[in-house]
Design goal:
By secondary structure, the protein is an alpha/beta fold. It is built from 14 helices and 22 strands.
């Protein structure tokens, strides 16, 4: 059967243009990165990875999905700088319905080139709070408040939004729903989902620090950025509660390991402390570190120097607990900006486990002290026993004496297991034995 050559040529041309159009449609995409937890160092790493990915690929724009109660202000400023220096337009979107962008979340939203919200979402609650002995209270220090207001005002001005209401987010702790925020000029769009937002932005020209970019987002592909395993790990350990508990557990484990070496507690303690310091490097104040060190020293003195467990040990525990409280986000140094409700949750969820862990390790230490200070009976010398392990003058092992196991070593030479021996002396809790005379 003969095939018409024109048909073959037309078919090849059709396949060529079809493949070209498919390549073109799959290459162009928007990169979507989600911030749905408290803003920590892990969030900064996440945004950095996402932006690096969009720079390498044929990405039209980055969309940051926000649903956060706030977090570290230092990390928020870093994210804002990334947005400012991004070669690709960055769109902030408080989504889905019912989501919120409180405190530091507002700072990120107002830093984006396009700020949008889904219906029935909320932004606001930017006034910082601090911890006091009686709970939490709002900060009214003009130096801090003015700095935060001016920062938001400058970001709003740079993106053509209403800067006059930015001060109310901080000073009056104002909250706005989507329709109110759009009406007052705090945001640029209200759209029900990502697809409708992309349709609304099609043809929009955005001014960036690297020049003007006109978006072509009609029917564009969407890629939800998947972070590396490093981000998942950092996200877990950098949570304020997890990182703080790691540090507390690490200190107590290290203390227990030093008092009773050989069981691995000191190794776990050292690793936990290193990991927690890595995770909490952005939030631990020098005062907190000093209190924790002092508490550790006091407990060590109580364990190794003074008998029993008394005032020094109690003081060490109090010092550690106060140090742990200081690790909760401190707004006086502008390290954190987070909702008051989340602040109160941190107090409960951090302090209660710390007290439980402290009580558990105090119980262990007291038990160990009792065992350590227990002296062998005066009449143990001269008693007969049976060796359980092979022992010599250098190597210790166990013997069975009147139904109890004791550590022992040979006075001279080597003694095999199951040998009848006589206790001829002792050094603290170690008995000195020699074979029974026949």
């Amino acid at each position: 059967m003969r095939v018409n050559k024109k048909i073959i040529i037309y078919l090849l041309i059709f396949i060529f243009f079809l493949s070209f159009s498919l390549v073109g449609s799959t290459n162009k995409f928007v990169n979507i990165v989600e911030i749905k937890e408290s803003i920590t160092g892990a969030t900064t790493e996440l945004v950095g990875e996402a932006f690096d990915f969009s720079e390498r690929e044929d990405c039209v724009a980055n969309i940051i999905i926000l649903d956060t109660q706030g977090g570290s202000l230092d990390e928020t400023f870093k994210i804002a700088d990334m947005i400012e220096n991004s070669r690709k337009p960055v769109i902030g979107f408080v989504y889905p319905s019912g989501a919120k962008a409180w405190s530091a979340g507002v700072f990120i939203l107002e830093s984006t080139h396009i700020a949008a919200m889904a219906p029935h979402t909320i932004i606001g609650s930017c006034q910082p709070v601090e911890l006091t002995p009686t709970g939490t209270r709002y900060i009214n220090d003009s130096k801090i408040i003015n700095a935060l207001v001016e920062w938001l005002v400058e970001r709003a001005n740079s993106h053509g939004r209403n800067s006059s209401i930015m001060s109310k987010f901080v000073i009056e702790n104002m909250n706005l729903n989507a329709s109110e925020a759009l009406k007052l000029g705090a945001i640029d769009y209200v759209e029900k989902n990502i697809d409708s937002l992309l349709e609304a932005l099609d043809g929009k020209t955005i001014e960036t620090t690297h020049g003007n970019v006109t978006l072509s987002t009609h029917g564009i592909s969407k890629i939800f950025f998947k972070p590396s395993i490093k981000i998942y790990i950092l996200r877990i350990i950098s949570h304020p509660i997890v990182a703080s508990l790691l540090l507390i557990a690490g200190i107590f484990s290290l203390l227990t390991g030093l008092s009773a070496p050989g069981y691995g507690a000191e190794i776990f303690g050292a690793i936990a402390i290193i990991i927690s310091l890595l995770a909490l490097g952005f939030s631990i104040s020098y005062i907190a570190i000093l209190l924790l060190i002092v508490g550790f020293i006091l407990l060590a003195i109580e364990l190794f120097v003074t008998p029993g467990f008394g005032v020094i040990g109690v003081g060490g525990l109090i010092s550690i607990i106060i140090g742990a409280l200081f690790m909760i986000p401190n707004y006086q140094n502008m390290k954190w900006l987070i909702s008051q409700e989340y602040q109160q949750m941190l107090v409960v969820f951090l302090l209660v486990p710390v007290l439980v862990i402290a009580a558990f390790f105090v119980f262990i230490l007291i038990k160990f002290l009792k065992i350590r200070k227990k002296k062998p009976a005066i009449d143990v010398v001269g008693k007969e026993a049976i060796t359980v392990d092979r022992i010599d003058s250098e190597k210790e092992g166990y013997i069975k004496l009147e139904g109890e196991y004791w550590k022992a070593r040979a006075k001279r030479g080597e003694i095999k297991p199951d040998t009848e021996v006589v206790v001829v002396g002792r050094e603290e809790l170690t008995l000195i034995v020699e074979p029974k005379s026949r």
